[in-house]
Amino acid sequence: MLRSSQVAESGVKVSSRILSRYLLQGEQVKVATRQHWASLAEPLITVLAGFFVMAWLSTLLVDAFGAVGLHLWWVWIALLVRLVWRVLEWRENWFCATNKRLLKTDGLVTHKVAMMPLGKITDLSYGRSVIGRAVGYGAFTLESAGQDQALRFINWIPDPDQTYRLICAIVFGEERFDREDSLDSEDPSLRAPMPTPPDPTTVYPRLQPQRPSPRRLHIPKKSATGRESDSFDDSDIQW
What we know:
Layout: E1 6-7, E2 13-14, H1 16-22, E3 29-33, H2 41-65, H3 73-92, E4 94-98, E5 101-106, E6 112-117, E7 121-127, H4 130-135, E8 137-144, E9 153-158, H5 160-171, E10 221-222, E11 228-229
Antiparallel strand pairs: 1-2, 3-4, 4-5, 5-6, 7-8, 8-9, 10-11
Helix pairs in contact: 2-3
């Protein structure tokens, strides 16, 4: 069973709901982070600016049309509801790096999960805009082996320098290639060593053809007594 919670190496505690839904048995969380708070800046500024605009407009319209001008506040309430919705979505959005894959979750009502095995990642690009450098967030771009993956662009990464170092250590370190995640053809540790080609400058001795030894015919000779003798010289008789 999965533990109720895990604390990643980045110091972030991942809730048990995320673990029980999307992580595999025995999968270890190395990096876990939500989006940077700057992703909520636009709806927050919209609510604050809308409040002052509605207060000014309602004052003018109440003097001209009475209580009808108060209905404009419903527009501001809609902006406030939008802000609350974005905050709830922010709480559910996670970017995790485990010992097997990269994982990104999105959505509050409709959940979307994108993942990429570590063995598929060939390059990890890291960029920061001017506002990102000032506020403290960055964006990652993942490249795979000639394939379009669901997890490619990740924005609003907080503390991007440390997160980039941790992910690079996971993706391109000793734990990159896993026998369960990568194919034999893509895992250098599983490939058979290539034979060393012969050196064309090496001079090998030329083999001489072997000639068969002469075959000798043994013919017994008769002695003076008429008996066959085995002692004779057959060096001159050859085949």
